[in-house]
Amino acid sequence: MDIDSATDRSTPISTQEKEKEKEKEATKAEPMNTENAEDEDQEETSKNEDNVEEKPDAPLTRKDEEMLRKNKTLAEFLLLMDHYTPIIPDAVTDYYLGRTGFDCDDIRVKRLLALAAQKFIADIATDAFQYCKIRTARKYCEEARRQTPFPIQDKKTVLTMDDLSAALSEYGINIKKPEYFI
């Protein structure tokens, strides 16, 4: 039976659909040989970079599509790292990575780690600045309640160890000095 005659002429059939139908009919007509079946199964399944088996005809699941998208964006991002100069110099990154035992020759990975360290430092500085703003706002409110005749004119932002230790404690880093008891 011809595929074109079985379907309505008003709906066009793509060549891929025709090939799939022909393959299905051919597999139904041929007797199964166990040695050939194993070879065909190995050819049909392909492994991507994450060792996830996929069949070319099977639709991708949402999880597989997400992994492929992430791999694609990571590869594109690593290509962008070739031309990116991070704020933390490569020599400093190499020194500290060497001290921790990290050995990698790919400069893109090192720059990616430098970018992650830069973001970590920026997040800590932003959090410490927020703690500083809260502390100074509290100080101004207390003075307004006391109604001092001379309000504080100093509007400089000063990063204190208290602000920094509060910001770092959110990330699980304790830099507070131990209390001294007399």
TrEMBL record:
Q: What is the lineage of its organism?
A: Eukaryota, Fungi, Fungi incertae sedis, Zoopagomycota, Entomophthoromycotina
What main location does UniProt list?
nucleus
User: Looking at the record's lineage, which domain of life comes first?
Assistant: Eukaryota
Its Gene Ontology cellular component terms are: SAGA complex; transcription factor TFIID complex
User: Which Pfam families does the record associate with it?
Assistant: TAF10 (PF03540)
Q: Where in the cell is it found?
A: Nucleus
**What species is given as this protein's source?**
Basidiobolus meristosporus CBS 931.73
Q: Could you tell me which PANTHER family the record lists for this protein?
A: TRANSCRIPTION INITIATION FACTOR TFIID SUBUNIT 10
Query: What does the function comment of this entry state?
Result: Functions as a component of both the DNA-binding general transcription initiation factor complex TFIID and the transcription coactivator SAGA complex. Binding of TFIID to a promoter (with or without TATA element) is the initial step in pre-initiation complex (PIC) formation.
* Keyword tags: Initiation factor, Nucleus, Protein biosynthesis, Transcription, Transcription regulation
Which BP terms from GO are recorded?
transcription initiation at RNA polymerase II promoter
Bias (Basic and acidic residues) occurs at 16-28, 44-66
What the entry lists under InterPro entries is as follows: TAF10
Q: Which family does it belong to?
A: Belongs to the TAF10 family.
A GO term, aspect molecular function: translation initiation factor activity
Q: Where is this region: Disordered?
A: 1-66
- Identify this protein by name: Transcription initiation factor TFIID subunit 10
